[in-house]
Amino acid sequence: MLIDPAAPIIAKRSWDSYFLLSLRSPRIARQAKPGQFLMIRVSDQPYPLLRRPLSIHSRDKDRVEVFFSRLGLGTAILAEKKTGETLDVIGPLGKGFAIPPRAKGKTFCLVGGGRGIAPLYFLARELQARGGHPRVFYGAKTDAHLPLLGKLVAAKMEVFISTDDGSLGFPGSASAMFERELPRSARPTAVFACGPDPMLKEVARIAAEGGIPAQVSLESIMGCGVGACWGCVRKIKRPGGAEWVKICEDGPVFPTDKVAWEEDK
Amino acid sequence: MEMKKSRPRRKKEGVDLSVDLGFIKLRNPVLAASGTFGYGLEFKPYIHPKKLGGLVVKGLYFDPRPGNPPPRLAESPSGLINSIGLQGIGVRAFCETVLPKLHGLQTPIFVNVCGETDEEYAAVIEYLNKRKGIAGYELNISCPNVKTEGRCPALSPEHTFSLVKLAKKASRLPLIVKLSPNVTDIVSVARAAEEAGADGLSLINTLLAMAVDAETRRPRLANIFGGLSGPAIKPVALRMVYQVASKAKIPVIGMGGIMSGRDALEFLIVGAKAVEVGTANLVDPGASVRIIQEIYDYCREKKVPRIEDLIGMLGVE
After folding, report:
1. Is position B95 annotated as part of the catalytic site?
2. Are the C-beta atoms of A126 and A110 separated by less than 8 Å?
3. Of residues B58, B82, B259, nearest to A46 (C-beta)
4. Measured between alpha carbons, how far is A167 from A170 in angstroms, rounded to an integer?
């Protein structure tokens, strides 16, 4: 957990409404784990006031990357940033994915919907580095919303594609594709997912039916990102019953059997 | 590259930043505001709490509280609307698990005291009275997020008077009363608190607000209403602090949208003896410490030897 008030943008890529920023921030990069996130100040003006939470998409020894889509005011401003500008960043924050200690030779299923693919790339790279075999299920609205497909393939990951409109790959959601593919090969050691809530809920159900442990990365508007404001809660099962738990501090990754999906609203 | 936990030590030579609230002397006039600084420990990775004038921990009820369903936050231009609902661990867990760790922070700890009923406020105070390491209480009679439509004791001078009287009787420590801006006559509520024996006043709490999504035609907060904070409310806060500080004989702690040293100085100039920094902590965990530095820099530049020389020095001819 570090404040880097001036992390330079050293590279930028964009695809229509998707963006990838590489930031030079060696100490944050060194500490980063898959599933953790950054709080990024998009403006030094009072509007928008809050930092934006973005999951860490990848890292190497001195850089961290974020991948995001232009959704609202904050991401629109961030999308306009140029190489050479600096960003005020706090991170790495939260608890990331719990990777089983002996990943070597094991298979893992990673299910990402839309921009939910962002932290799964980092996780997949980490699993590969540990000798694991990640199978990535990448779904989006249309074939125009799959900007990271080439990157996943280039990283020699086994990739399955779905689109809601059927323009590429499996017609339907990433979770439906995952459900269809799951029985066709050996049972994975664990499932990891990030994406829209209905998709995560489906992945949780499918994994539970198959008796496979699963973790999901949840999303919320966040105030501080460091556990102080209690603004970003979800209903999580605890020994004394389900309670509102901070996504920023206790998550954003939770085991699916701990998320109280039905009591959440 | 990264900001170190401590900057190179700059001696505060030539400027006395300490302020005397009567019941306590603070090393500087900047406190971290309740609800924006967690229980005080969350910011340890980022700042040295001992640099603060003090900190006010998140509001405590007697029992743990579940808080409101999400979404609990909505941004607005230069502002933040929250409806956390005072989720919290309750006073017992606070004393057992948090308070012992707060001793090490070396800064005065004020506990923000809440209650569903007047008796609960008194019960929280009586429970905390027995504990060491608390400098005083901030009586939260003004949180708009507890009951529906923002009702709270601070909306009525009569209720304020009776509750503060009860709390003061229960309390063995200095009692600061936190006022609501959601009133037509803040001075009458302030006077009620003062007459009931308050040792200090802090204001303002958040402004009752709401946010709507025109696309979905739904409120942005699950609770519909929330409390507005941030730079958007600073002009309202300044006006109210000025009104109250002009009349009150007890010290006033000003807050509302303080993001910079200049903002804090404005509150001191209109008569606040100290300030609380709130929403700025969420945006920048180092905000409170930065603001102290900026106040110091201002005093150096303007050749102000003592910060207290500035308090209430608004020139109005």
Report:
1. no
2. no
3. B259
4. 9
* pLDDT interval class at A262 (50, 70, 90): confident
> Is the Cβ pair B38, A228 closer than 8 Å?
yes
CA distance B128 to chain A (A): 22
Phi, psi dihedral angles at B138 (to 5 degrees): -115, 110
Contact flag A46-B78 (C-beta cutoff 8 Å): yes
- Do the beta carbons of residue A159 and residue A139 sit within 8 Å? no
pLDDT tens-place string over residues B80-96: 999 998 898 999 999 99
The predicted pLDDT at position A251 comes to: 94
Kindly indicate the confidence band of residue B4, based on its pLDDT and cuts at 50, 70 and 90: very low
> What's the pLDDT band for B150 if we cut at 50, 70, 90?
low
Strand duo B136-140 + A158-163: pairing: unpaired
Residue ranges of domains in chain B: 19-68+86-210+230-310
Token pair listed for B291: 């603001």
Give A-chain residues touching B256 at CB under 8 angstroms. Answer: none
Of A2, A224, A265, the CB nearest to B2: A2
**H/E run at residue A30:** helix A26-31
Pairing of strands B19-20, B25-26: antiparallel
How far off is chain A from B248, nearest CA to CA, in Å? 31
Spatial separation of the C-alpha atoms in residues A213 and B235, rounded to whole Å: 53
Assess contact for B131 and B173: CB atoms under 8 A. Answer: no
Whether A214 contacts A190, CB under 8 Å: yes
Q: Identify whether the C-beta of residue B208 lies closer than 8 Å to the C-beta of residue B227.
A: yes
How far is the C-alpha of A231 from the C-alpha of B222, rounded, in Å? 12
Fold of A2-93: Elongation Factor Tu (Ef-tu); domain 3 (2.40.30)
Fold of B19-68+86-210+230-310: TIM Barrel (3.20.20)
Architecture of domain A97-217: 3-Layer(aba) Sandwich (3.40)
Residue type at B217 in one-letter notation: R
pLDDT exceeds 70 at position B68: yes
**Domain ranges in chain A?**
2-93, 97-217, 218-260
Q: What residues are paired with A18 via a beta bridge?
A: A15, A69
Q: Could you identify the residue written with the tokens 């959440």? A: A264
ipTM above 0.85, yes or no: yes
CA-to-CA distance for B240 and B232, rounded, in angstroms? 14
**pLDDT tens-digit profile of B272-311?**
999 999 999 999 999 999 999 999 999 999 999 999 999 9
Interchain CB contact of A42 with B (< 8 Å): no
Is the pTM higher than 0.90? yes
Fold match between A2-93 and A97-217? no
Question: What is the CATH number that goes with domain A218-260?
Answer: 2.10.240.10
Cα angle B88-B92-B96, degrees, rounded to a multiple of 5: 105
Confidence of residue B1 (pLDDT cuts 50, 70, 90): very low
Q: Are B43 and B290 in contact (CB under 8 A)?
A: no
Q: Coil, helix or strand for B176?
A: strand
